Amino acid sequence: MAKENQSFETKLIHAGEPKPRIDGAINVPIFQSSTYEYAGEGSYHDVRYLRLSNTPNHLALHKKLAALEGAEAALVTSSGMSAITTALLTFLKVGDHLLAHNTLYGGTADFVNNELAGYGIERDLIDATNPSDWDSKLKPNTKVIYVETITNPIMDVPELRKIVEFAKMHALISMIDNTFASPVLYCPVVQGFDLSLHSCTKYINGHSDIVAGAVIGSAAHLDLVTKNLNHLGGSLDSNACFLLHRGVKTLALRMNKQCENAMLIAPFLENHPQLKKVNYPGLESNSSFERAKEHLCGFGAMLSFEIDGDVDQADQFINHLQYAIKAPSLGGVETLVTRPVTTSHALMDKAERKVAGISDTLIRYSVGIEAADDLIADLQQALEHIG
Ligand SMILES: *Cc1c(COP(=O)(O)O)cnc(C)c1O
Predict the structure, then answer these.
(1) Is residue 252 helix, strand or coil?
(2) What is the pLDDT of residues 34-64, one digit of tens each?
(3) What share of the chain is helix, strand, coil (3-state, %, to 5)?
(4) CATH 3.90.1150.10 fits 252-384, yes or no
(5) Candidates 49, 105, 146, 203; catalytic one
C-alpha cells in the first residue's frame, strides 16, 4: 500500500519499523552498544556511535516521528529543552536577532530572555496572536521567529498561518514548539513551519517515565541540527529511545481520549460558581476559540483556571483532589495538577508573569485518560472543601 494512504493511527504502529524486522522481533530491541564496527563510513558524523544518534533505535524513531508530522526528517534528543536550545543555537549566531512569543514554556522563556544575550544574540518578544505587533519588531538581523502551538499555561493559540506567511515574506526560519498539540492536533511542517519541536516527555511518550525531545523538519535543516547536537551532546539514550518508541504507538488513542475528557471538564468548570476564569481554547468564550477551530484538529487536553479565592484556597483545592496528582509536567495518562507559579513558571519574575497573564492563584490541569465522570466528581468534591 502506498505510504501516503496510511492514516495517522496506522503510521503510529508501522511507520519507520525496520524491514526486515530485526531477528523477527516485533519491537526494535534496545541496542545497548555505544560504538559499532567501522564499516567504511566517510565522515565523522556518519561513524556509528550512540552520541551521533544513529543506532537502530534512533533511526526507527526518526522515521516514525517524521512520518507522523508529514516531514522529511526528525531527530530525537535527550530532553525537550535540548531540542529547543539545539535548534535555536543552530540557526542563531552572534549578531543575530530572534522574535519570540511573549508567553513561552518557563525554561524556554528563561533561556530566550536571560541567556541568549550571553551568546551575542538579541531578542524581542511579540504577541503571536496579534499580527499588527510584528512588523515594528522586525530588524535587518532577524533570523528566527519562535512560537508555541498552544501556549503554557494560558492556552492561547497564535495566528499560526500568519506566522508562517510572515516568516516566508522576511526569509526567517520559523520554529514552533508543538508539545501541547502533538501531531494528533497539528502538523507544523505540513502547514509551512520550518521546524517543529517537541518535549516528547509529554504527549508523544505519554507515560511520565522518560525525558526526551524531538526536532522535525526538512532533511537539509535536520542535517544542520543533527551536526550541532553531535557536538552539544544532547543525544537520547537507547533505553529511553525504546520507551519512547513503545509510548508513541498509543498516541492517538491517548490524545483523543484526553481531548474528549477536557471537552467535558472545561464546561463543567466554566459553569461552576466557584470558578473565576477557565482557560481552554475549546470554550466558545475563549479568545483563541476561532483560531483553534481553524488551525487545529482538536482543542487539546490542557486547562488552566482560577478559583474564586486566595493562594491558600487554591492550594487547599489542589490538596483535596483525589485523582489529579500534584506534580509538574503534563501529557501523561494520569491527570496532573500544579500551580505554575510554584513549578513550571517559577523562574519568571512577577513582572514577566503579569505580562504573560499568570496569576499566583492560577491552577494548571493536565487531563489524563481516566473516566471524565470521575475527574469531574473529584473536582466537584475538592471545590466543596474550600467553601
Ligand atoms: C516540558 C516542556 C518543555 C521542556 O521539555 P523537557 O522534556 O522537560 O526538557 C518545552 N516546551 C514545552 C511546551 C513543555 O511543556
Answers:
(1) helix
(2) 999 999 999 999 999 999 999 999 999 999 9
(3) 40, 15, 45
(4) yes
(5) 105
